[in-house]
Amino acid sequence: MTHVFTGVLWLALCLVISYFAAREFYKIAEDKGYHGRKYFWWAFLLPLVGYLLIVAMPDRGTNQRTVVNEDLPEL
Hints:
This protein is mainly alpha-helical. It has a domain at 16-60. It has helices at residues 2-31, 38-45, 47-56. The model has no long low-confidence stretch (mean pLDDT 88).
């Protein structure tokens, strides 16, 4: 009986961790200019595939800031 409880506890813990990780990757996708809940579900249901998909997406440039020469450090 305790093995079942331990298994359920581990499953619940894994789901909670996966939820928070998927939420962060969803925020990253939104920062890159991709809006849609599908990016959350990709990261939640297929973590490795979803994480790589979001990391590999190009930035659409919605939140990009142009670098001015004054922002660059002196060498």
